[in-house]
Amino acid sequence: MARGIIRVLGRLDQAGRMLENFVLVAMLTSMILLAVGQIVLRELFDTGIIWIDELVKLMVLWLAMVGSIAASRDDRHIRIDVLSHILPKWAIRLTRVIVDLFAAAVCAVIAWQAWRYLQLEIEFEDVVLVDVPAWIVHSVIPAAFLLISYRFVILAIKKVGETVTGETDEVGT
Fold this sequence. Notes:
Elements lengths: L1 H44 L6 H22 L15 H36 L2 E2 L3 E2 H5 L1 H26 L8
Antiparallel strand pairs: 1-2
Helix pairs in contact: 1-2, 2-5, 3-5
């Protein structure tokens, strides 16, 4: 039973990774094409599409959020790691678990506050891109921080599991 659940979770994780990678590549490619197209329209034809600039800005937001989710999945986020050169491996693992749990808590608070802000956008009926409700576009912020928080909790659990079972990881490398 446990192996079946682990297998299903592994497949879901793999599908999530593929989806994240696809979204990152598609958005970056789209941003480049839209920006270059806008430059060509302005320079060669003295015209442009009025909402392209705002769309590219919003795509940067989405790209940053999805990229942050992808970085947190493999524990490849920015880390200031001063203590790993002087502490023993067990202490490094312990500090990383504490840091991951703290980061999960901070991201959860940010997700909650972003959700509250989204409620205000819904209430005030803000729009972007001429006629699109802003809350739809900005909904990526609480969703991304919630997923990042989830990923940090999973990373902490994995690190505790590796410490208990004695498996090796990249700690100290």
